[in-house]
Design goal:
This protein is an alpha+beta fold. It contains 10 helices and 5 strands. Helix 1 packs antiparallel against helix 4 and helix 6 packs antiparallel against helix 7.
């Protein structure tokens, strides 16, 4: 099966054509590198010089597409040229083949060729001088170094700089890609955070509005309707304030609203009072503890969302909220009656449990929610444990 050589590059065609024309010009002028009387000239005359020249020009066509084949063939041609009167262009094209073999060849060849040519240059200097004891014998090593080792070493230097530049370019592209990935992850994380904040801040008030507006529409009593409208107005005002706080977080320099401090555990009392105003029988059992702001915010939001779910889904009964700090972990527990109900009193998005679980996971904590048995009957329990790395006060059971 015939081996099809790759198509030469345009620049290589120009190099081969230029070398061939230059060599033919020297040949036509009768310029040779050695006189025909020299002892090494085994093929005297003008015509034998053309064969190495033609072969070397053909090798130049493969200097980049098949550098190893070009160098091996060119080496045979340069050896043949030694036994003729020689042509300077043939030697110059061989130096280019040596340079191209290192620059465009395989990484192994790029390091192997300079070592081999270096050893040949040293051997060509030492051995002839040791045998003939003539200073002129040193020129063999010098010529070998100029023709072989010099171009190979130059090719290795150029390739090293080229590889370093390519590696730097790849590192820059990787850095840009990683920066883009970090930016996308940051945007995704921020969107998730704002989604949790929006859900936790507004859903509680809107759920209360939906529940009491339903009650006002279903009952004909003026007193009941007026009471429901009062609760609706209170939750509307608080929901609007929470929405303005969210806008303040998004646009600190908008001038629409000043950012309000994030809620802490000190606000649990007001949160429970608001739940009682919405008709829930809530009991708060929380010791006074000082925890980092992220832990306090997560605990507050988990309690807030739990009370919102109770308002929408739970059957009437006692709701208990407990918080305690023990062994560096803040434990949050919310229980409410669990039983059959026709349906939720207000529509839900289903994102409440997901948001609570995400808040706990962001602090390397745990979260679980589900029905369980208790001495008072079947209850729905929400549990969250939030690690506290550096509690401000001592642990409180």
């Amino acid at each position: 099966m015939a081996v099809r050589l790759p198509r030469p590059r345009r620049f290589d065609v120009y190099v081969a054509l230029g070398g061939l024309l230059g060599g033919l010009l020297l040949w036509a002028l009768g310029l040779a590198t050695r006189p025909r009387t020299e002892v090494y000239v085994l093929l005297p005359g003008r015509w034998p010089v053309l064969l190495p020249l033609l072969v070397m020009a053909g090798c130049e066509l493969l200097r980049r597409t098949a550098p190893r084949t070009a160098l091996l063939t060119g080496t045979a041609a340069i050896v043949l040229d030694v036994f003729t009167q020689g042509n300077l262009v043939t030697i110059l094209m061989y130096t280019d083949l040596m340079y191209a073999a290192v620059l465009y060849g395989s990484p192994a060849s790029a390091h192997r060729i300079p070592r081999i040519t270096g050893l040949l240059s040293v051997a060509g200097t030492v051995v002839p001088f040791a045998v003939w004891r003539e200073p002129e014998a040193l020129l063999i090593g010098v010529v070998t170094g100029v023709v072989a080792f010099g171009p190979a070493a130059t090719g290795l230097i150029v390739r090293t700089h080229r590889d370093a530049a390519e590696a730097a370019r790849l590192r820059a592209e990787q850095t840009a890609l990683l920066a883009e990935m970090d930016r996308a992850q940051a945007v995704t994380a921020e969107r998730a955070r704002m989604a949790r904040e929006l859900h936790d801040m507004v859903a509680n008030h809107l759920s209360a509005i939906a529940v009491h507006s339903t009650a006002a529409l279903s009952l004909d009593g003026p007193g009941t309707s007026r009471e429901a409208l009062g609760v609706i107005r209170e939750n509307s005002v608080e929901g609007l304030a929470e929405m303005r706080r969210l806008i303040g977080i998004l646009r600190d320099d908008s001038g629409d609203a000043e950012p309000v401090a994030a809620p802490t555990l000190d606000g649990l009392g007001a949160l429970v009072e608001g739940a009682r105003a919405n008709g829930l029988a809530v009991t708060l059992d929380a010791a006074e503890v000082a925890v980092p702001a992220p832990v306090a915010l997560a605990a507050y939001r988990i309690v807030q969302e739990s009370l919102t779910n109770v308002l929408k889904h739970a059957v009437p009964g006692r709701v208990t909220v407990r918080l305690g700090l023990h062994e560096g972990v803040l434990a949050v527990r919310v229980t409410s009656p669990y039983g059959d109900r026709a349906g939720p009193t207000a529509p839900g998005s289903g994102a409440g449990l997901v948001g609570m679980r995400e808040r706990a996971a962001l602090l390397d904590g745990s979260f679980e929610a589900g029905p369980e048995d208790s001495p008072g009957g079947r209850v729905w329990t929400v549990r969250a444990t939030l690690p506290v790395s550096d509690p401000v006060e001592g642990d409180t059971a």
